[in-house]
Design brief:
Elements (H helix, E strand, L loop, with lengths): L2 H8 L5 E6 L5 E6 L2 E3 L2 E7 L3 H8 L2 E8 L7 E12 L2 H15 L5 H11 L2 E15 L8
């Protein structure tokens, strides 16, 4: 995919697969909701989660979004890079206000209150990319 196609694809509402590295070197994989801010993929998670424990120790991260059921429909983007952790509450709440409407609907006063309650325990992870790989099998025209 072109850079513009990657940006458009990531702008869709999908699930992000997040891989960090456990202390014993094994991968830790989790599915997260995400948002793109200033061209970077980000997600938030509880500050005591295994992802955050891993990323504080080793900021290397890989994330993937993929869609499609049939081989000819498969599309996806994998980003490898470093995690930038954000725990400033003002920034965490702002991220929550971007993330919420992508997955849950209208951002209203009740939603904002919920973001403040849950956000108080969360850390935002922004993925600073070093490598982006994409694929779009719909472009193959049935030839593989």
């Amino acid at each position: 995919m072109s850079d513009a196609e990657v940006a458009a694809y990531l702008g869709g509402v999908h699930t992000l697969q997040v891989a960090s590295i456990n202390a014993d070197g094994t991968p830790h994989l989790a599915a997260m909701f995400y948002a793109v801010i200033d061209g970077e993929v980000g997600f938030w998670t509880y500050g005591k989660s295994q992802k955050i424990v891993n990323l504080r120790r080793d900021p290397r991260i890989s994330v993937m979004v993929e869609t499609g059921r049939e081989y000819s429909e498969l599309k996806g983007v994998t980003i490898t890079g470093r995690a930038r952790l954000i725990d400033d509450l003002k920034e965490v709440f702002a991220f929550g206000e971007v993330l919420y409407p992508r997955y849950f609907g209208e951002l209203n006063d009740a939603a904002r209150e919920g973001i403040k309650i849950t956000g108080a325990k969360r850390v935002v992870v922004m993925v600073e990319p070093s490598k982006v790989v994409s694929w779009d099998h719909t472009k193959l025209g049935g030839t593989y």
